[in-house]
Amino acid sequence: MSGDVEIRFTAPPDSVVARSINALAQFPADEPWVLIGGIAVFLRLGSVTRPTADADTVARSQAELLDRLVAANPTVLVANGDVTFAVAGGSVEVDVVDLADDPLPADPERRAFAIARRTALESAVRERVIVTSTGGAVAAEALIPIATIPALVALKTVAMFRRPHSRHPEKVGSDIHDLVRLIDAVGASTVGADIAAADPELATWIADHIENAFGQDLRYTIVRLRRHDRSAAAQDSATTALPVSRSSPMSSAIYSRSENSTDPSTRGHVRGRCRLSKGKTDEAPNAGTRRALARRRLESSAASVVADIAPAGSLAT
User: Across residues 134-149, what is the average pLDDT?
Assistant: First the structure.
């Protein structure tokens, strides 16, 4: 799908953003791939809030995409899925992750990651990105597929959960900050609707882990945000965070509003539980009901993110 609006971004010609866009301009237009990660977050939100060293992508077939990149430009260096391009008097690395969703892994965490990658690839919007220097000169320009904000929310939630066991556990701070800013940008309703429409199973998994991180583990989440993301915006968000528990009036309003609803399909979405209304417990929900349940539950969970940790600049003065 192609977007109608250009994304204009200001950055120095030798910045990672400009170099990444120049490198991504060399990716084949007819090969299924999508930009994810920090660069995608910056482009979607219109600002750089933290350092990043490379660009991240997902490809339908990592092997085929790498082969085509090397065939088109023999000077690129490929190692373990990372492609290094010489651009703008320097170099930049682009990580190409294989979709690897057939078959889906049995492990819940790896399964969620695979579904999130697939969602990002299938819902990608092709946008024209124009990076200009502070003087107005064009430093980079490319028409590239970029993950939508709801898809980035899914990926960031998975990353936040996986990060402690990764090579860079300290990046959990930026994962949390990105997640808060992304949900705040489009609203919980859009996040819930788009992810549930793409895959109700993924929406339920995301809701589970958001509820844990921004519910019973909220204080720990705030500590990780403050400790691991030293950017001014993240520190402001951590400072203004509302350290509430689910028993507080604010959290109770968020998490139990569906329990008090007169609509049977919205009841029971508290503390990670998703049950059918009374009298229907023996009936398997159809696809439409599962999608509606997943959507409403994820909307409620996503709303808690920006209720409990306000993004810097979003508070009324």
Answer: 96
